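anyone seen this seq b4? input:
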Amino acid sequence: MASFCYDKNMPLQLVEVRTSDGLPLPGLLFEPETATKKVALYLHGNGSSSVFYSVEETNTMAKQLNKAGIAYFPFNNRGAHLIHKLDRLTQDGVEREPYGMIYELIHDCVQDIDGAVKYLKGLGYTTFYLIGSSTGANKICVYNHYEPRNVFSKYVMLSGGDDSGIYYEEFGKERFMKIIETAKKEVAKGNGRTLVSSKLLGNDEVWFSHQSILDIINPDGDYNTFPFNDFMNKLGLSSKPLFKYYSEITKPFLVLYGSEDEYCYGDTKRVLAILKDHKNSKAKAEFEIIQDADHGFTGSEQELANIVTSYLAQ
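predicted toks r here
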């Protein structure tokens, strides 16, 4: 286990966790100088993201949480980067397999999160918080749906995204439905990991496998946890109840957006109001907006860290 130093008061360890299906995932463990039993896990977003490229946000969040006596564990999930290979441990040895955003299925977050929790429990942590940004917020809803009796005391959902609705706008209805139809056929034929043609996507700079594009844009899929566009414009895309997974959450949670979030259809206040209306009546929830902040809270990292830390430390 390699150790690095963020500053003299913040020891940092580069660690590796094993998912329940045998994949190695790297993470950064920031621990306060005084020993603690509390730890906050962080789930990054989609689109070739990685916790190792969000230096300002990661360092600022870690420093604030550590000051409050909470360890911080941002880690790369199997969907980090566009494409990369991981060594899966099996009974027969090691199998090298391609992963990354191009192949990721959001339901796999259950195995990623459970692997991280198991590792941290082994270090003696007993109180767990889950923070998710962008797709990471969607993953909190998906994880809670499949593992409702989990160890987490609180959730923090940052900039939860409506990918299905956003791609509906980008592709247009006809192309959107054609992509779904094609992807379903290819997945059914066992070709889920083959790449979608750039001609079908209408963009030669975007890459998805058939299984990942179907997972991301399917209105009836696990990914579609924040269907703002469908709800606001009465599109009727989804046959399942809108905000189903989100509405199932009964644990305490915080929802936070930037006022200038570029994926909120120009109306962050309305997005927040929709989430307030759809929350479970049993959940104690808080909703906040950081003024002048974008989807990634660029330039507002300190304010973001202050709000999240204050919430978790309550």
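Residues 1-6 have pLDDT under 50 and may be disordered. The longest strand covers residues 10-18. kinda curious what u guys think
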